[in-house]
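Following up on my earlier message about zinc ion. Here are the inputs again, as you asked, copied directly from the submission form:
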Amino acid sequence: MSKLSDRAEHYRSEMQEALDYIWKHPETGYQEWQTHAYLADAFRKLGYELVEAGDIPGFYTDLDTGRPGPCLLIMGELDALNCPNHPDNTNGKAHACGHCAQTTALLGVAGALKEEGALDGLSGKIRLMAVPAEELIEIAWRDEIRKEGKIHYFGGKPEFMRRGMMDGVDMAMMIHTTSNKPEHYGGISKGSNGMVAFTAAFEGVASHAGGSPDKGVNALYAANQALSAINAIRETFRDSDHIRVHPIIDIGGNSVNIIPDKVVIESYVRGATMEAILDANRKVDRAMAGAAASIGAKLSISTRPGYYIRLNDTGMALAMKEAMEEILETVHYDMDEWGTGCSDIGDLGAVMPTVHPHISGAVGHGHGDDYYITSFESACMDSAKVQLVFTELLLGNEAARAKEIVANYKPDFATMQDYFDFMDGLISDKEAVRYNEDGTVTLDFA
Ligand SMILES: [Zn+2]
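Thanks, got it. Here's what our run produced:
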C-alpha cells in the first residue's frame, strides 16, 4: 500500500484541472459561487457529503476515523482580489494571492483521504473546508450585507465560527503560497498582524467650484488633511508594534466644477497586538477628526473588527516543519519572524491551536498585477502532500501528538462566545466631529 502522501498523485489531473478552472474564475469574498460550485461538484464526485453554508459560498465535510481523538480542520480559501490591471484578470478580478492553489491542494488531500484504507492508523476526525472571504475588501458592500443580517463578520473564518461550522474542531491548518522562492520551499514563522478596518466619510458643502467656492466646504481637502495628519503620527508608532495604516480614497468627488461634498477614506489599522492596534486606531481617528474640524467639514467614522492576531502554535509549527522536511527541499523555520499582513485564521487561533505556513510556487508581488502561480508541483502537489504527512504526524499513533498540542494550547479566549463578544465590542459608528450651536466643536475619537 502506498504512503498516504503519495496518494495525492492519483488526483494529479483533477487538481490540474481545478487550478486551471479556479484561476480563470476569480471571485471576491462572499461571491465565490462558481468556485464553490466547481469544488462542491469535485468533492461530491469523490464521494463526499457536504455541509454547505447555504446563503454564502463555502462548505465542509468530515472524515471520521472511528477512533477517538481531536478533530483537525484543513482549509482552502475560495476568494480572489480586485486586480483590474492584472493581465490575466476576469471582470477586473484575479487570484493575485494564490488562493486557487490552496483549494487545488485541498482537492488532492480530499482525494487521498477518501481512498480505501487511507484512514487506517489515524485517530480522531478530519474536517476539510472550503472557506470564503479571506481578503478583507469591499468593506462598504460587506457592511451593507452585514446590516441586512446576511453575514456578521467580514472574514469567512469568523463568519463560519459564528455559524457553528467550526464547532467540534480542535485545531486548524492551511498552507498559503509565497512568491519568488525556490521550488519545493516551505516557510514557517511566528505569525502576523491583526487589524481593525474603518471607513471615514468626510462631509462638506457642495458649491460652484469657480463661481462660489467660498460658499462650499471641500470634503476632498478635509480628507487630504486627514491623510497628512495620519502620516504625521506615524513616528509615534513603535517598531515592535508593526503598525500599518494604508488608506485609500473610495470617492473623491463627483464633478470637477463642484466643490466635493462627500469623500470617503477606507483603511485598516494593523498591528502585532490588539492593544497596539486599538491605541493606533484611536490616534488615527483623532488625527482625522482634527483634520476635518480644521476646515469645517463633518466626519463620521465606522470601525469594524478585522482579523485577530495570527500566532502559529509552537507544537503545530514543529509538526509542520517535520512534514515539510519530508516532502520539500528547503524549509525555513524561524519562530522570531513576524509578518505584517493579516489572515482570519488568526481568529481561529484565538480559540484553538493553528498553523499557517507558506509554500513556494508563485512569482510576483503578493496582491500585485504580476502575481502568477508558476509551479503546480510546489504550490499544489507539494502542498497536498505536506498536509497529508502533517495529518499523519498529528493523528497517527492514536493521535498522541494532536492530543498533546491541544493540551498545551492556551487560548486568548476561553470560549468562542468570549471571542465574539470581544470582536463585537470593536464595532462602532460615530459622528467624530460635531459643530455646536455655541460655535464650539466637539471631537469624538474615543
Ligand atoms: Zn492570501
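One observation from looking it over: The first helix runs from residue 12 to 24. Hope that helps, and feel free to reply on this thread.
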